[in-house]
UniProtKB/TrEMBL annotation:
GO terms for molecular function: glycosyltransferase activity. It comes from Paraferrimonas sedimenticola. The chain crosses the membrane at residues 68-88. Keywords: Membrane, Transmembrane, Transmembrane helix. The keyword Chloroplast does not apply. This is Uncharacterized protein. InterPro entries: Glyco_trans_1, Glyco_trans_4-like_N. The keyword Cell membrane does not apply. Residues 81-189 form the Glycosyltransferase subfamily 4-like N-terminal domain. GO terms for biological process: carbohydrate derivative metabolic process.
Amino acid sequence: MTENRCVLHLAMDYPNRNRPNNTPAVRNFVTKNPGVDYFVVALRRVAWPWQCNTLQGDGEGDEKVVSMAFWGLPFGIGLVVSMWIVALRTRALIRQRELQFDAVHGHKFAFEGIAAWWLSRWFKKPLILSVRGNSDHKIIRYKPFARPLLGRMLQHAKAIYYVSAWYRPILNQYFEVSQEKQKLLPNFVKQRQQAPASDFDPFRLVTILDLNQYRDKGLDKLLHALKLLEGRYPKMTLDVVGKGSDSKIKEINTLIAELNLEAKVRLTGPIPNQELIEQLSQYAGLVLPTQHDAFGMVYVEALLSGVAVVYSKGTGIDGFIDDIKAKVGIDPQSITDIAAGTAQLLDRQQEFRHWLLRYHYQIKAQFSAEPYLSGYKQLIQQV
């Protein structure tokens, strides 16, 4: 019996000892594939050189992870040099441990993907890249001097996975890339046993976000949009789920008071994930007009709960739900468009709920891990 092939992963969005609260999406992808072994260098940028470290493990008992803090300037200043140093440190770690691997995967193309490219060349191993639209686009758009290097990386890569499906045509405007290399890789939903409920409150809306980023997530514009709609939908309410600093919560409450929406909008605070999933089906819709989002797992959780969504075009989940009828895409910069999208959701909620109940298992299969993990395993076996 042959051993599984091993992939060296470089990832900033990976829970680790330097940043344990990172979202688990990349970890779920890396660790849930029984056919592919792994070793992870989980990265975190720090502001000062003396804060750099290399710590064994992820803080949760996985010894196939190394937590590495690296020094880097904000706004992508000196990014290529920072990633070159990360590559040098990782190369030393590989040699020290005599680590054997068959491919290297950089989980953010224009960031740790640069370090992964050097490691791929030094060790003569195939390169795999993941593309996350918003963060990668900032480098591609505002660092034109980096584009020749990024183009070489794309040509060198064995496969390019889009966590942000909407960004695929944009990347292809900047670079010539073989279409055969390009694949989609959504974040995976946790397997759930319960099916969505058919009963719900027809005027109860929900939005779920980090309150510290409430402007980037569009909450301020959403509140103004609700103000436009309160006369048309007098029973409409909004639950705002999420945690934030005292100062941000105060800002949000001040805005709610200025708009006289105290009777319409409620800040629930954070709700544990499983409890939130159990409650989601009570709502008529999820409204989250975020301006920047790599994927947006919360939209998938809502759809699987039978809840229609108002989502932003050109970011987040856009591109993965083209065939799903129970959605309304809006311009997150436009208050009137957010209001129109929310009104459409409220007017068509029964139709949307029936559609989601009918096609629940097809949506669940679309965002399940198995086909993507199987395809990744097949790719690694071929390299």
